[in-house]
């Protein structure tokens, strides 16, 4: 079935285009808010060829289609059925069977805050991945030239420069894109959010810091205030305040003067608070966070590296289940800004590999006890898991069974320990699994693959030991 036919059938089974309130997509799913859930034929939707799963919650349905396919189908849905009338909302990442698993979970302020942060960064992930790859290949060319493997001629210099140009075109102005997305999320004018993000990296901040004695000439990085201080966290907080100020100002400005006075007054008030309060305070918080991560990730003590790597990888699956993984995105971004790479992502990526190993063990047990349904579920979910999309395995295999969800994490911990010990660093973050190999720095790619294989083996062995035949027979 073509994507066009799939979308046509989907629209029919959700009650027609008139029943759609809003729609969007993320990496692997098409998410639709419907006006009347009674019109949705969920059982028939699941039978559509190409639909990998369906999640229904309140007025929202999430149609699992897989990487790339979700975006293509959303484009068809907008162009042929909805036009420009549907509001687009950026939503978090893939959770198959979410209604059954999370129906009893209550939202709290922390989870909601982490979700908002995730929604700011998730639309930027494609550019983060592309920029990371470009910078990684540019660095590879430089390294090969330094070692004499590649000639330092105009051809290779030009290729390297073009790659650096494309990578730097996003990562060099990460704060601007963050400011724009944060403004859209908080209800501020996107251009003003982008301006605030741009201000944070401008050299004029250093000049202001010098005037007020906040700049450390001997050690600029230790300044109370400098350009880049506070990073992306500071920008998000600043844009949140900007949104509040802009809305308050607009209430008191006559309509005829709104276009001129509202942005001017908003920026004057916000910039003062942003430069003198938010940037220094969030800068201190970011410095503490990086220092704490360095104690774990860059420790010279191999025992510390092994333990921290194991624990982080083993606990990542429960974090995904509780929705706390959204809070890791700004940590990745802070690391990328401060270190030029991300060391936390490769460790946590082992969690998905542990699940693959656990699922393989369950597959053999299902074959032994002739559980054909479980065999089919695993056979369909494992390819996605190998490629870094782990949710089908979480919600379709390991979590419903219970114990394999734990054994998968315990197995993944061994891969996490190895990756932490060998100090694997990524140039960006994105899906885990084998598709993440190009995101690693060239000198780290082999160790990342070894970590994945260790997680496969660990998840397989521990699951095989602790999961009995009767456990698979009952599911």
Structure description:
The chain has 475 residues and is mainly alpha-helical. It contains 21 helices and four strands. It is globular and about 75 Å long. The two termini are 31 Å apart.
* Largest beta-sheet characterization: 4 strands, antiparallel
The termini sit apart by 31 Å
Structural class: mainly alpha
Helix content estimate = 55-70%
Number of helices: 21
Principal-axes geometry comes out as globular
Along the chain, the helix and strand elements come as HEEHEEHHHHHHHHHHHHHHHHHHH
**If you average the pLDDT, what whole number results?**
84
Proportion in β-strands: under 5%
Give the C-alpha Rg: 24 Å
Provide key terms for this protein.
single chain; mainly alpha; 4-stranded antiparallel sheet; 21 helices
Question: Topology of this protein?
Answer:
Blueprint: H1 3-13, E1 20-25, E2 29-34, H2 42-46, E3 53-57, E4 60-64, H3 69-82, H4 98-102, H5 109-121, H6 125-146, H7 154-171, H8 174-186, H9 190-199, H10 204-211, H11 231-252, H12 255-297, H13 302-322, H14 328-339, H15 344-348, H16 350-369, H17 372-386, H18 391-401, H19 403-421, H20 445-466, H21 469-474
Antiparallel strand pairs: 1-2, 2-4, 3-4
């Amino acid at each position: 079935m073509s994507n066009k036919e799939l979308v046509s059938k989907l629209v029919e089974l959700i009650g027609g285009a008139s029943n759609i309130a809003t729609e969007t997509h993320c990496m692997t799913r098409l998410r639709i808010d419907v006006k009347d859930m009674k019109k949705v034929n969920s059982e028939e939707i699941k039978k559509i060829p190409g639909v990998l799963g369906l999640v229904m919650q309140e007025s929202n349905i999430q149609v699992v289609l897989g990487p790339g396919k979700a975006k293509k189908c959303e484009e068809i849905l907008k162009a042929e059925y909805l036009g420009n009338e549907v509001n687009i909302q950026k939503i978090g990442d893939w959770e198959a069977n979410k209604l059954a698993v999370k129906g009893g979970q209550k939202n709290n302020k922390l989870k909601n805050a982490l979700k908002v942060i995730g929604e700011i960064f998730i639309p930027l992930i494609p550019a983060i991945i592309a920029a990371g790859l470009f910078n990684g290949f540019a660095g590879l060319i430089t390294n090969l030239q330094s070692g004499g493997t590649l000639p330092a001629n105009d051809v290779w210099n030009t290729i390297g420069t073009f790659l650096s140009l494309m990578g730097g075109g996003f990562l060099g102005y990460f704060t601007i894109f963050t400011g724009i997305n944060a403004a859209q999320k908080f209800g501020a004018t996107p251009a003003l959010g982008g301006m605030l993000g741009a201000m944070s990296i401008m050299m004029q901040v250093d000049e202001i810091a010098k005037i007020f004695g906040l700049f450390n000439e001997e050690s600029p990085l230790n300044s109370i205030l400098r350009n880049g201080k506070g990073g992306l966290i500071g920008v998000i907080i600043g844009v949140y305040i900007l949104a509040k100020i802009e809305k308050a100002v607009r209430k008191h400005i006559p309509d005829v003067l709104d276009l001129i006075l509202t942005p001017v007054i908003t920026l004057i008030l916000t910039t003062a608070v942003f430069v003198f309060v938010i940037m220094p305070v969030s800068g201190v918080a970011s410095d503490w966070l990086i220092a704490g991560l360095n104690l774990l990730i860059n420790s010279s003590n191999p025992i510390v590296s092994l333990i921290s790597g194991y624990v982080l990888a083993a606990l990542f699956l429960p974090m995904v289940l509780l929705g706390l993984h959204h809070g890791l995105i700004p940590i990745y971004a802070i690391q990328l800004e401060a270190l030029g790479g991300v060391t936390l992502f490769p460790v946590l990526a082992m969690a998905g590999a542990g699940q693959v190993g656990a699922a393989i063990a369950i597959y053999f047990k299902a074959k032994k006890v002739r559980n054909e349904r479980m065999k089919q579920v695993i056979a369909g979910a494992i390819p996605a898991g190998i490629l870094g999309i782990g949710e089908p395995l979480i919600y379709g295999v390991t979590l419903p069974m219970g114990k394999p969800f734990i054994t998968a994490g315990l197995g993944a911990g061994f891969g996490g320990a190895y990756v932490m010990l060998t100090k694997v660093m990524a140039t960006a973050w994105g899906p885990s699994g084998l598709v993440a190999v190009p995101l690693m720095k060239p000198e780290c790619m082999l160790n990342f693959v070894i970590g994945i294989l260790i997680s496969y083996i660990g998840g397989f062995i521990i699951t095989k030991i602790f999961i009995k035949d009767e456990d698979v027979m009952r599911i």
